[in-house]
Structures are given as C-alpha cells and as structure tokens.
Amino acid sequence: MKEMEKKIFSCRQCGHCCHGETTVSLDENDLRRLVDFLKLPEEVVRERYLRITGNVIQMKVVDGHCIFYNQGCTVHPGKPWRCGQWPLHPSILTDPNNLESIRQSCPGLNKDMSYEEFCSILRELGPARG
User: Fold this and answer.
1) pLDDT at residue number 1
2) Residue 122 near residue 93 (C-beta atoms within 8 A)
C-alpha cells in the first residue's frame, strides 16, 4: 500500500500541515497514545501541551504552529490519527475543489495527476491508512 500511496503523496516534512491557528482534535485513543509516548501523567500532558474547550481537546498552538512542531513532528510515533491521515483526507473524494485546495497547501501531493486518477488510488488505499 505504501508504494501506491507514494503515487499520490510523498511527505516533504515541510510542516505546512502543522501551522495554523488551531490543530486537529484528539480522540481518547489519540490522548492515550500521546500520554504513553511522552511518558508523563495525563494531567501534566493536558496542562502543558493541550488546549481544552468543552469536550474538544486540541494540541496548543505556539508561534503559529502545533506545540509539537520543531523542524518536524517531535511526537511522530504518538501523533493523532488525523495527523497521520493528512493530507489524504476523505473530503477529496467528494469535491475536486477540496483536492485543489489541499494541493495548494501541501507540496507533497502529486500535482500532475488528474482528479479521477488521484481519487481512484485514494479509494484503493481505503480509510485504514494513516
């Protein structure tokens, strides 16, 4: 499957996906994976690294990027599943404009492939990738 993925995406580790005013939301599995990776008590991880608004848990943003970004992801093995999914987001399959928008922000996406061919490969990769 990795060879197939490389036809449509090859991560340049540019960090574009780690920059912005917010980060992805973490589910319970993400939180547990992050806590386990950092080898810190959950309370410390929540206080030091997370932004919690109601039921929404996100990583803090520092200087316009995810708190864990420093020339790359510093928690890569413990990162949220949504980070692993990006930029091959399912919304690409529903609208060609979504692919074009993501292509503009991610230099690792194949820019020469047609929408139809890109989606065909993305469908073959299925939802379990990331």
Assistant:
1) 54
2) yes
Contact 21, 61 (CB under 8 A): yes
Q: How long, in residues, is the chain? A: 130
Burial classification of residue 8, based on how many CB atoms lie within 10 Å of its CB (0-12 exposed, 13-18 middle, 19 or more buried) = buried
Give the three-state DSSP class for 9: strand
- The two structure tokens encoding residue 123: 């469908």
Average pLDDT value for the chain: 89
Residues 108-117 have pLDDT tens digits of 999 999 999 9
Q: What is the DSSP string of 83-100?
A: HHHTTS-GGGGG-HHHHH
Question: What DSSP string runs through 14-45?
Answer: --GGGBSS--PBP-HHHHHHHHHHHTS-HHHH
**Among 29, 59, 33, which Cα is nearest to 46's?**
59
In angstroms, the CA 125 to CA 130 distance is 10
